[in-house]
Amino acid sequence: MKEWIDKYIKYLRIEKNSSAHTLTSYRTDLEQFLAFCSAHFDVDIKEVELKKIDRLIIRLWLGALSEAGLARSTIARKVASIRSFFKYCFVRGAIEKNPAHLLIVPKKDKKLPNTVQVEEIERMMNLVETGTPSGNQDKAILELFYATGMRLSELTNLNVTQLDLNDKQVTVIGKGNKQRIIPLGEKAIQSIRNHLKTRTELYGKRTDSDARKALFLAPGGQRMYPRRIQNLVKHYLTMVSEVTQKSPHVLRHSFATHMLNAGADIRIIKEFLGHADLSATQIYTHTSVDRLKKVYSKAHPRAEN
């Protein structure tokens, strides 16, 4: 089974263009399941046979996860990992029956996304000290996140050639290598232009052919990596907001929420975010309704006792 897990992860990385986070999560889930099977069959991990795994073993594993107190959202992701893996193995003839075919994904607890206020976004942008190559890049990263709502992996993978500043747009390569075009606002365009003027000054010893194509560069001169951007966003959000989560995803959520609050069509926001299904975008309507209720309670003369 272990060799098929390796093949599957390679398939996700090369053919599906999955994010580093997805690859790590899926490998962790599958290796945890492999360890459970190893204990169940009382054999070494390397000796677990894929063909011997049936629906009952998978259900026993999920039961153990539930008893361990894991959140439904975590279990749901692990179910998704297992279903996807066994579908891959079945399609490629590694097994005659798919034991995870009818596996039900537990409903996730709906959590409203963390967002920051428009005023806090403005203060954050004003805090960035530009005029240096690193400062120009920091500002461009923050502006681009908020202007487009793109994912962290999409931003780190951006190349200069994906920008079309004359037409005020950027081409993003999302999940499954799907391309989408997102408009750019004037503030984002100006920040990107400033960054491009000093971008080559960020080249270093680790600047290779890939880094020369990359829009954003890490301190060593290589293509920018996720952890560096996460720390950057956290640094600036900490200075302007009390929001509990301070990550690039908060800027993505804020982009969608602020667009919706300003009257943008949710179907358009879906396209900007790169969601495959509208149901994934619907959560932002809850945030908008929640805001409307607060406004109502403060503004209507008979809303409160």
Task: Summarize the structure in words.
With 305 residues, this protein is mainly alpha-helical. The protein has 2 domains: 90 residues, DNA polymerase, domain 1, CATH 1.10.150; 180 residues, hpI Integrase, Chain A, CATH 1.10.443.10. Helix content is 57%, strand content 4%. The protein contains 14 helices and 3 strands. It has a 3-stranded antiparallel beta sheet with strand order 1-2-3, with no helix packed on it. Helix 1 runs antiparallel to helix 2 and helix 2 crosses helix 4. The relative contact order is 0.10. The model has no long low-confidence stretch (mean pLDDT 88).
Query: Looking at CATH, which topology of the largest domain would you report?
Result: hpI Integrase, Chain A
What would you call the structural class? mainly alpha
Radius of gyration: 23 Å
Order of helices and strands: HHHHHHHEEEHHHHHHH
Strand content: under 5%
- Give the domain tally: 2
CATH class division of the largest domain? Mainly Alpha
Major sheet details: 3 strands, antiparallel
Strand order of the largest sheet: 1-2-3
Bulk shape:
globular
Q: How many β-strand runs?
A: 3
CATH architecture of the largest domain: Orthogonal Bundle
Q: Which segments are poorly predicted (pLDDT under 50) over 5 or more consecutive residues?
A: none
C-alpha termini separation = 64 Å
